[in-house]
Amino acid sequence: MRINRVQQNIFFFTIILFILLLGKIAAISFFLVGAILLFISTTHIIKQVTILYLLYLVNPTLFPDINNTINTTLKFIILFICFGIVLIKDFKHRSLDNLRFSLIIFFFVVLVSSLQNSHAPDVSIFKLILFIIGSYACIGIFKYNNHSSEYWIDWFYSLFATMVIASLPILFHFT
Question: How far is the C-alpha of 18 from the C-alpha of 62, rounded, in Å?
Answer without folding.
Answer: 11
